[in-house]
Write a structure and sequence with these properties.
The structure holds two protein chains of two kinds. Helix content of chain A is about 40%, strand content about 15%. Chain A is an alpha/beta fold. The chains are: A alpha/beta, B alpha/beta. The interface between A and B is large, with 65 and 76 residues.
Chain lengths: ~450, ~400
Amino acid sequence: MLKKLGDNDILKNAVVKMADAGFPTPFAGGLEYSSPARGTWNIVHTGMLVPEAHEIFVCAASCLRGVVLTAAEMNAMDRFSTVEVRENNLLEGNLEELLIDGVSDIIEKLPKRPPAVLVYTSCVHHFTGCDWNVMFSALRERFPDIDFTDCYMNPTLRKSGLTPDQIMRRQLYSLLKPCTINAKAVAIIGNDLPTDTDSELYTMLTDLGLIIHEITSCKTYAEYQKMAESSLYISYYPSAKAGGDYLAKKLGGKHIYLPYSWDYDEIQASLETLGKECEEFTGETGKERIKGILAGFEQRKAECEKAFKETLEVVGDTAIAIDYTFCPRPTSVAKMLLTHGFNVQRIYLDSFTGEEKDDYEFLKGNYPELELYATVDVRSRFMATQSKKNEEKWLAVGQKAAYFLGTDYFVNVIEGGGMFGYEAVIDGLKLMREAYTEKKDMRSLVQIKGMGCGSCSLG
Amino acid sequence: MKQTSGFISTYSADAFGVCSALYELGGLVVMHDASGCNSTYTTHDEPRWYDMDSMVYISGLTEIEAIMGDDGRLIDDITNAATELHPKFIAIVGTTIPAMTGFDADATARVVENRTGIPTFGFKTTGMRSYIHGASEAFCTLAELVKTANNTKQAKNTNEQTEKSDENGKPDVVGETINILGLTPLDFSVNGSDKAIKAYYEDRGVKVISSWAMGSTLEEIQGALRATENIVVSETGIKAAAYMKEHFGIPFKVGIPVGGMDIDITSLFDDTTGERHFESVRDYEDCDAVIVGEAVSSYSLTEYLKRAAGLNVGVIASTDLDEDEIARGLSSTKTDCVIIADPLFKPLVKGERKLMRLPHEAFSGRIFRKEIPDLISDLDFLKDIITVIRK
């Protein structure tokens, strides 16, 4: 009975050594657990990035509960409303009517007319075969002064094509209207958090005198619309790729994807890709300048090496664990730390992304004892309880690793934290040094939803 | 318009009510859902999630399984998990998409029970009703479990002649004993209210046999027939109390001992069915203040304010009301009326009316948890209410 929950054996199937790990899913599926570490953003947080827009969710009560309280916790209830789907709507087949009338009713009641409304439908609309054209045409006809877009909260479809996260990062830009393209304007797209202005990505664009648009810095809907003038769309978060392709097709610019990585060769390759694209803006005269900028970036490898050395001196052989919420490529981080002598013992993840295939092969071949821990496995429920009995000091890189290990020494960053390029390595290592020496209130911090979106303090 | 909410939150849903009611009892509770229900429940509606291990999971329903009506993986996954985790029981909790596709929770439960040998229950929750309905269903299931457990025990005792019992199979008891029905953090948070209610009775020489379901084990709940009375402290416990009255002859009383006062609001409910004898919302022109919230706690507080300070306080029993209905009720109050409600109702408190904050976990989740008062012992909070209303 419950007495067994304390046994170490219970965790055994939630852990696999790298040598035995399959790709892309190292664990058998099953019932799923949800840990209290909540820093990553959801579709409510992301949608709120469209300035002045209003979100309206049309779902059942159980689905509304999570999103409405997300909005409440980020003090954004004045930009959020709901239409509740009930059993009678399923029986009567009037979901389209409910959406049109419900959204209209809410808009009429709002104290100020928003320039844009994000209407989120749910799994029930999909399964009942609702006609999105009918619903949105009616809304656009009723409210010609408002831009509407369709967003989706349909987790049942999470394994059917694009994930809800990918779709959200695409629909986030669907309100952009075609305009005259400015050859000097670029847009960094698909991030929840602003790109670090010290990153090589940012510095190259600014050094070349380009106008940089990013949704995270837009304060008004007009500023948001200005993004449409961009001739180049840059994404570096994997879930944003679909959005970038969509934008290029819709608005006529070009999209490049620069994968997040800690590997020097990959970083340099990404920056060279960026440099090549930037030649389009600068012409022949800019070529030499870009060459110089890229050569300067090469020097940053030495800064990275220095940072690895300094960090190793601080953390020594302390056990380190990394999780997938820290950045989109935890295996790349693990690889670089391990090859620089760090004692990385665990990675917390449930699957590998396609981009991680090379990292996977490298780790499997060179660090077969490295352990992978599942985060949603039924047995993961008892990891934190087990950790309470553990006296060993762990340095966690990411919130989930910190929670499962019960450590207050952790890097509190999600989704890469806006860091990119060599700067991501240098800053990431600095954060590791700080995390090793300064305790944090892990319990409080990891439970806050949507880190960096301005959540209110919780009770 | 009905079903729309322009400005306020929504109450916790039925599936989460089931989970909350069963949380501490050692069961494997599986919400048959794609993804979001577990994170919603454990983030916003389950304050015990961080500190108390409980086996609440989701099934991870996919599109193809929903379309094909494939329950095979669900059954396999539950069986596998149960084999490893050894729960005392298994609960399969329906949500919206299973409700839409006609998922048969009871039949699935029977298959799982046959495979695992572990008592398994199916809950026909839809994710489209409030937590009251789900928790209520869970407590009724526990009441049925009590019946089954005691039938088995009675048969055994009859054979062995080891224990006396009355004609209902109810074991003989000595002294005043009670069960407390309807305790979940959704209505009482984790601020000590549950312990204060128990202490109130124990201080008066009444033995608490079980509390459904905070602070009691499944075994203690199965011994509930030793009680001479059931005390219902939220609307989630009324149907189970009515069931126990019908099947075991145990009478029930409704009310929370607000401020340590003996409160009895049983007459507000039908004593055989548990149905309400009051309207959820009405006109409130004559009221000094209006409470918006769960019916039992709101009416108990009203009764306290009436007896302690002679105040006439109305109630909007809001757990199944739409925003417009609540707004209409509030607009019927005096222009300077005090509205005692969760802070997330603030957008509906218009004009000179004053909001007295009374957070409710089932409405605002964890946001104001530190502010949620223990209405039984927090006399300062109760004094504040009286002071504010009298001003």
